[in-house]
Design brief:
Layout lengths: L8 E5 L5 E7 L5 E4 L1 H4 L2 H6 L6 E6 L5 E6 L13 E5 L23 E5 L9 E5 L1
Antiparallel strand pairs: 1-2, 1-4, 2-3, 3-6, 4-5, 5-6, 7-8
Length: 131
C-alpha cells in the first residue's frame, strides 16, 4: 500500500522563518512529532537555553502557516532521545491527515518511505525510499 506522506508533513521553521526541519502529524487533534534539534538548535541546547514555547510551521500539502505549542512534558534533549511533541493551535487544515508511525525493526526487505527538508530543497522537501 502506497501512502502519500505529504498529507501529514509539516515544515518546522526556525526563529528567522527558515526551514529547520520536518515534523509529522500523528493525531487528528493536531499532535505533531519532530526532533528537539529541529525545534531548537543543538548549539542552543548545549548553551542551556530553554526550549521555545511555540514554533511556526507550514503544512506541506496545503501551504498553511500555523503555530504550535512545544510540550515541555515530552521534550527530550538532542543528546538524549532528541524528540519534541508539538500541539497545533486550532484545527488541522483540510487535506491534512495523520501519519501512522511504526518501528523499523524487522522490516528487512520492505520499502520504507522517508521525507525531509535537506539544504538542497529546504522549501519543497525531498522524499526518499529505501529497501
Amino acid at each position: 500500500m502506497s501512502v502519500d506522506v505529504a498529507v501529514g508533513i509539516v515544515r518546522v521553521l526556525d526563529s528567522d522563518g527558515d526551514t529547520a526541519g520536518a515534523g509529522f502529524v500523528i493525531r487528528d487533534d493536531g499532535l505533531i512529532v519532530t526532533c528537539s534539534h529541529v525545534v531548537q538548535s543543538e548549539e542552543s541546547q548545549r548553551r542551556g537555553d530553554p526550549q521555545p514555547d511555540y514554533v511556526d510551521l507550514i503544512f506541506h500539502i496545503t501551504g498553511d502557516r500555523r503555530q504550535a505549542r512545544v510540550d515541555p512534558a515530552w521534550w527530550r534533549w538532542a543528546e538524549a532521545e532528541d524528540v519534541a511533541f508539538l500541539h497545533l493551535e486550532g484545527a488541522l487544515p483540510e487535506k491534512v491527515t495523520p501519519l501512522l508511525l511504526a518501528s523499523s525493526v524487522g522490516v528487512e526487505g520492505q520499502t520504507l518511505t522517508t521525507f525531509g527538508f535537506p539544504g538542497a530543497k529546504p522549501v519543497e522537501g525531498m522524499a526518499g525510499r529505501c529497501g
